[in-house]
Amino acid sequence: MDLPVDEWKSYVLQKWSLLPKSIQVTISTAETLSDIFLHSSSLLQPEDEMFLKRLSRGYLVGKDPNAPLFYREEGNKKFQKKDYMGATVLYSKGVSHSRPNSEDISLCYANRSAALFHLGQYETCLKDIVRAQTHGYPERLQPKLLLRKAECLVTLGRPHEASQTISDLESNFAAKPTLAASQFQVLQRTLCRLKVKVQEKENLTETSPAALTKALEDMDLREENEQISSTSSSVSLCTDPLKGRCLVATKDILPGELLVKEDAFVSVLNPGEMPPWHRGLESKWDTRATNGDLYCHRCLKHTLAPVPCDGCSYAKYCSQECLQQAWDLYHSIECSLGGLLLTLGVFCHIALRSTLLARFEEAGKVINKLCGEITNRDTCLPESKNLAQILSYDLGGESKNKGKTVETPIPGCDINGKYENNYNAVFSLLPHTGNHSPVHKFLCALSVSALCRQLEAASLQAFTTGLRSSKLKAAAAPVLYPELNIWGVAMLRHMLQLQCNAQAITTIQQTGSEKNLITNSRQVRLATGLFPVVSLLNHSCSPNTSVSFISTVATVRASQQIKKGQEILHCYGPHESRMGVAERRQKLRSQYFFDCNCPPCEREKQRPSQGPGREAFCCHRCRALLQGYDVLSCGSTSCTESVSRDHLVSQLQDLQQQVGMARKLLRNGELERAIQLLLGCRHAAESFLLAEHSVVGGIEDDLAQAYAASGDWEKSAAHLQKSLRVVEVRHGPTSVEMGHELFKLAQIFFNGFAIPEALNTIQQAEKVLLVHYGPWNDEIQELQKMKSCLLDLPPILVGPNQ
Ligand SMILES: [Zn+2]
Ligand SMILES: [Zn+2]
Ligand SMILES: [Zn+2]
Ligand SMILES: [Zn+2]
Fold first, then answer.
1. For 329, which DSSP code?
2. How far is the CA of 444 from the centre of ligand 4 (A)?
3. Pair 52, 343: CB distance under 8 Å
4. pLDDT tens across 634-680, in order?
5. Among the four 37, 221, 309, 744, which has the fewest Cβ within 10 Å?
6. Ligand with the closest atom to the CA of 584
7. Where are the beta strands (DSSP E) in 559-640?
8. Radius of gyration (Cα) for the chain, nearest Å?
9. Distance 632 CA to ligand 4 centre (A)
10. How far apart are CA 154 and CA 151, in angstroms?
11. Are strands 266-269 and 521-530 parallel, antiparallel or unpaired?
């Protein structure tokens, strides 16, 4: 997803292997990014571009005139089955393939409004009704739409507007004597019912929904740092000869304190599983819901009612405002390149978007340097020494930087030493050019070249207007080509930077079905972004912060107490509670090019005989830890048991297969069978796995789900508490994993009316989740609702076994 699709990757790999040795050597040993780019770019042949074009065409990114009807009918089927969520997604897909101001688009919006109505999304429903009307909803169908509008307004407690809509409706009837008598009666009856409701609601005040913006406003840094934007004054930016830039605490920091709150400089929504080739599928229109259907392509907000770009079917937004902003900032250039960008992957897309955003930064010194030097001196790129200098932080001791940029001692800072969320800071992130393999650099350079050629063909004019505003106008046409090359080099730099600096923007998705009432949450990757301030944080396998996201804003909170002078650290992925030391170090070396020396790594390196820790096997007789490699023997002195590792591993595989089957049963609602199978699994697990083994925890968690689904809250809680103990041992009592597990337990107690237990667990869950997410987290909001609901219960219900 991040890198180009496999077909293009293997194509480039083959092209590379067929290059004469001398050219391979030239590219491998090129000193600067611009050399790499220009050499690779000159090798891009028309047939390569043709191949890429064929791949791009596999993505359905344009508007297909036959698709709206298909999606509307598929949506109607779901609607009839009362699957309103499914229907909403399909109508959205219909909308995105419709032309503006067509009957297609208005019908899709109108149908979507009906589904949203059933989902209780009245505000959004109203918006869709307006959209249907502005795009020319057929006159003959208006009454249905107006009725829905009136119902929404009544439910939302806006009686005045509802009355207005009702009188519109009545005049609509009066104007249409042709309406069938039966239809007229139905409408009349609904009208009467509505009028009564309006009267009931007349006195109610309007509700104000807690909006996203409010959440972000409320979550402010206590005191903003003067040296680093978006950062609290409790930290400062330092450089370390070994680590390069790092953030250090300037005072004692308490758990939960907000340290960084930074909006992404750039972000690109990960499209999700978007099947490129529809050859094998029955229908060329995909009916599955992907990230691209459910989240705004600009602000990443979850939305059930996206509005599509007028020019393509793949870019969708939460609102007209986001649509317009995206268009002005980057989408006007990207719109026609959808297929190519999906083929070349998210990193390439971010690289392009970063340079597009850079056009708008007047203060961006790098930009001025980049194009100023070139155009003023009217030289070609390779000879421009200044450019080469700017683009050559990348070879060898980058962090040391050998004083090349005299005025800025810390890379990325401006002359006054201030580090900001801007293109200058993004540009200063290290591309680690010397560490990437030659063929990887070739792949990136060739992909960027292909993108540049397309840009040149499609909309060079538009691309360059933003950046060359007034002073460069004189230079006009002759310099356009080298100018695009500069952007190519910048894009190549970004593509290489992203491997170490890309930040996955995640969200917590709730996966529980309506039936079992318990929501399982899991973290999913929503988008990829660049956050120059968050990028200042170095890695630890046992970090002292927690990163989370609202919209495109990243927040970093202290997850434990941090003493003055300590470094602020976060985890790049390989966390000590999820991966063994060897696996972690391997991953950090191959992706991030460094050897981790964090305390857990040092500790584990010194005691390599420790084995795989909590994932270990135990003796089936005495439950002591089994020790050894190929043949393991019992650690207890009084026991002589021994067993081969192969045997244990195959036993574990069998068990995991059984658990997989049980989960399938659980998903299909065959609860009784699932429970029997899971109980068997647990029994089998007890004979050879430690009680803290993740598989044991997983089985207990599944059992809790199964009992909850069958309404046995007591048993469900008992099993979840066992799972909770495993999570506590593995991840620690204040970990975010613990928070999610406590949240589930609170739901179970709540549903089972175990009031004291519920209140107690709610309090624990809140405490843990607050540290990691702050007060605007969905789960915390939900916990608070549960709490106030329990506290409001009449005393008679608070007795036992109610
Ligand atoms: Zn948006
Ligand atoms: Zn578009
Ligand atoms: Zn480590
Ligand atoms: Zn034993």
1. I
2. 56
3. yes
4. 888 888 888 888 999 999 999 999 999 999 998 888 999 999 999 99
5. 221
6. 3
7. 569-570, 626-627, 631-634
8. 30
9. 11
10. 5
11. antiparallel
